[in-house]
């Protein structure tokens, strides 16, 4: 078989493997909330400590995203992701032996290695296999992660207790590790191996000196800061200002997650047909996202649900744009792509954590309407920040600018 044809077909195997990893990490990372009634008595922990356990994966990303990116650039994506899956699988199994908050904190920290490592490194691998079609591949990849999160919320209640859930989660990751080791390949057949940058620190140094990486990081920080604010505050806001029950508020808020997954999967291909330049996409989609957010909060009843779905879809169209732009930034070579993605992932985490908790919440408190209007304006402001990203639309493919 012709090597190019083989590579075109095998890239879908690579995407399928990465989607399995995304599903596995979403499932094992989001299984805690449905098990709160079991976990809190077992660990004899407070509600705040339980929330800390649920947020520990973010802390893992702070410490692991950038180093793992440099290691992926140096030693290859396959080896680094495989090591992360094995560590996470072992840690998920170890959850069943945790009987205190401190012990659980440690095993959850290590269990999130696959989360921290596979995001940036996975995009690097997809860029090698999909080239100009990275937008579509990264959208499917993000959609799989959303599906994994949904499984994390749905499956735990169907199993009998925490032990069964931890065994199931560890087994899922163990099976994925075997499949990854057997079938993953760093590069297509015949593709030249990237030149090594030497020291493992040189890759992150080169990425950090690239001003456009910081621009993309700022865009991601604003995006995830805004979306986290709306998603986290919406259930309480519906209950407080629209007299919605807690159960209904949770169901209504989940519309955002499902519509975002649809946008992740279908959005990139649709956008490629509508907009001829990436810069146009990055200007228009954030404005539409912010407008949909502000209008949705102003609605009630079924119209609220429809507008939340519209907001979620636009959000899902927006999310894949930033990871896919990193490999084609000026002065971005393949031997520092994963390092750059690690840096961007760290800034994404900073936005998700600090913007809702330490900026908007202290300013607005429970004044939800002005909070959400400002959140929508963040998306609008994001559109103008994206103008600082060099254009690399479909008409130019994946060609790097200099």
Question: Would you kindly provide a written description of the structure presented here, covering whatever features stand out?
Answer:
- By secondary structure, the protein is mostly helical.
- It has 2 domains: 3-193, MFS general substrate transporter like domains (Growth Hormone, Chain: A, Up-down Bundle), CATH 1.20.1250.20; 206-396, MFS general substrate transporter like domains (Growth Hormone, Chain: A).
- 78% of the residues lie in helices and 0% in strands.
- The protein has 16 helices and no strands.
- The chain has helices at 3-29, 36-43, 47-75, 77-94, 101-111, 113-130, 134-154, 161-183, 200-208, 211-241, 246-274, 278-297, 301-318, 321-325, 337-364, 368-385.
- Helix 10 (211-241) runs antiparallel to helix 11 (246-274).
- The protein is globular and about 60 Å long.
